[in-house]
Amino acid sequence: MGFTIADFIQVFLTLGVIVVATPVLGGYMAKVFQGERTWLSSGLRPLETFIYKACGINESCEMDWKQYSIALLFFNLIGLAFVMLLMMSQQVFPLNPQDFANTSWHLAFNTAVSFMTNTNWQAYSGESTLSYLTQMLGLGVQNFLSAATGFAVFLALTRGIARKQVTGLGNFWVDLTRSTVHVLLPLSFILAVLLMSEGVVQNFNAYVPVKTLEGIEQILPQGPAASQVAIKQLGSNGGGFFGVNSAHPYENPTPWSNFLQMISLILIAAASTYTFGVMVGSKKQGWMLFSAMMAMFVVMLLLSLWSEYSANPYIGEAALMEGKETRFGVTNSVLWSVLTTSASNGSVNAMHSSLSPLSGGIAMLNMMLGEVIFGGVGAGMYGMLLFVILTVFISGLMVGRTPEYLGKKIEAKEIIWVVAGVLAPCVAVLMFSALAIATPQGLAGLGHQGPHGLSEILYAYTSGAANNGSAFGSLTVNTSFYNITIALAMLVGRFAIIFPVLAIAGNLAGKKMSPASVGTFRTDSLLFVILLCAVIVIVGALTFFPALSLGPILEHLLMLRG
Predict the structure, then answer these.
(1) What Cα–Cα distance (Å) separates residue 203 from each residue in 196, 221, 416, 446?
(2) Pairing label, strands 404-405, 208-211
(3) Segment holding 219, helix H or strand E
(4) What DSSP letter does each residue of 35-46 carry, written as one string?
(5) What's the burial of 5, exposed, middle or buried (CB within 10 Å: 0-12/13-18/19+)?
(6) Which domain does 31 fall in, by range?
(7) For the chain, which end, N or C, has fewer CB atoms within 10 Å of the first or last residue's CB respectively?
């Protein structure tokens, strides 16, 4: 089986829609976040103002970076505690037709951290563990709020870059509300309706027992899936309503639903580049970021497709279907794997453990690079801007000038925070992976031995620290050891980046704007795109190459030897 014209068309259409939609949605979001009127304002503005009045929020009140950070942390802690309590007491609440028992405390802790950090790592199977109420009120709500939190941090950093000699970065509660009401809710409603029209289930029925053609009884799960699938994809969350995620026919029944979900994976993250360009007064800056992201994405996709369509010497066949999505083909499985690990999403329509060694390694590398190839909603942009600042600093040192980005001088304080934000997730991945490999509790969960076993563990902690949530699926993780350590990795991956980003935003907002001169290094050129991509790849390669060499690279070499 080889790569066909139909496969090429699917890839081209997916990327083409993203390119076309980026300025349309990005322009709309820029208007929303700058408080301008949009074509949805007449219907959604009353809801926004009602929330302000009900919660006692002063829409015009600005926060400095410390106040912004405190509000964000307080809000997220409340969300974590609420989801934990709901999971540990779900049996006493309604909308539990299967009478599922309360979860263990460590599973509740892991899941609450996961959905609060926009990771959506799942150590459970939704259709056999959680009630409809828990899925909707706990996880579904966090899908919206964690995505909106990422938006808020991105907006604070954007204002810090665009404003001069001020302390205010906006208002966290206003940014959270506008992101949810004007962006996430309408898009999710539209996508949910489209998915329901394709057959994605949306009901509150009890599970249905049926008999198969062989006469064996099977239980068909039900539930309000379409609404959660919509926001899990658009909000770069990824948590499936059912255990096998979008490989389940009730979550992803048709080629059209598959196409819609793949588009949704990076739709908002891609459009955020254009939003940034509008808000800083230079659309070329936004297109520069989009170009860097798309260039890295295309390279990763081509490498992954090449690996998957190359013949396996041991079996003598290419494009093996084991673990792939048989309804949609190998290309859709590979495209989804690269999209989801580039977008900090974590949803799957095939088992990543069944990918060829290099394809699985590329999925891992996408996350190791910092989830900046589009990345999560908001999170991808502020992660990418950390690398932009680092690239500007290195470029300034090379030409002997004070580094500047959009008229703001980049000094020691900013670089210290950048290094902290870039390296913290890397440290978490390597330290927790080493701990798992060195302890009986970590090794007990392995589904395979040798380099693939190392890849299972390395992938799990990479996914957690990158706030992605996808998994090889062959590692048993619903244990106290993995639930606690992966939860800690998720917390580091989220807040050890957010707080440096907000500190940088506060520093930049207070600075003067230096006018561009002949010697100013342009950051909207092809040369800068190349330098930016090089810095991202070098940081990821130098940090993780030894671990990757013992995992997917060694497995690939062993495969070549048969």
Answers:
(1) 10, 11, 51, 37
(2) unpaired
(3) strand 217-220
(4) T---TTHHHHHH
(5) exposed
(6) 24-281
(7) C
Q: Which residue has the tokens 């959604």?
A: 44
- For 28, residues 6+ apart whose C-beta sits below 8 A from its C-beta are 38
Q: What is the DSSP letter of 210?
A: E
3-state SS record for 535-547:
HHHHHHHHHHHHH
pLDDT digits (tens, 9 = 90+) for 318-355: 767 777 778 888 889 999 999 999 998 989 988 888 88
**CA torsion sign, 371 to 374 to 375 to 378?**
positive
In a domain, 61, yes or no: yes
Q: Please check whether residue 3 lies inside any domain of the structure.
A: no
| Encoded tokens for 486 | 């992966």
Pair 471, 454: CB distance under 8 Å:
no
Measure the CA–CA gap between 390 and 414, rounded to whole angstroms: 9
CB atoms within 10 A of CB 54: 8
Structure-token match 């001020």, residue found = 166
CA-to-CA dists, residue 453 to 321, 438, 473, 479, angstroms: 21, 13, 12, 17
Cα-atom radius of gyration of the chain, to the nearest Å?
23
Sign of the dihedral defined by the CA atoms of residues 480, 118, 509, 418, in that order: positive
The answer to whether 462 and 406 are in contact (CB under 8 A) is: no
- Cα distance between residue 487 and residue 468, in whole Å: 12
For the chain, the domain total comes to 1
Give strand pairing partners of 217: 211
Average pLDDT over residues 168-190: 96
SS3 312: strand
> How many residues can be counted in the chain?
562
Question: How many angstroms separate the Cα of 313 from the Cα of each of 125, 554, 556?
Answer: 35, 15, 11
Q: Is residue 180 part of a domain?
A: yes
| Residue written as token pair 């912004």 | 68
Distance, in Å, from the CA atom of 378 to the CA atom of 406, rounded to the nearest integer, reads 20
This prediction has a pTM of 0.94
116-166 pLDDT per residue, tens: 999 999 999 888 899 999 999 999 999 999 999 999 999 999 999 999 999
Query: Which residues on neighbouring strands pair with residue 211, listed in sequence order?
Result: 217
Question: Does any domain span residue 152?
Answer: yes
Q: How many CB atoms lie within 10 A of CB 82?
A: 16
Interatomic CA distance for residues 104 and 82, integer angstroms: 15
Phi and psi torsions of 219, nearest 5°: -100, 125
**Burial (CB count <10 Å: 0-12, 13-18, 19+), residue 29:** buried
The type of residue at 438 is A
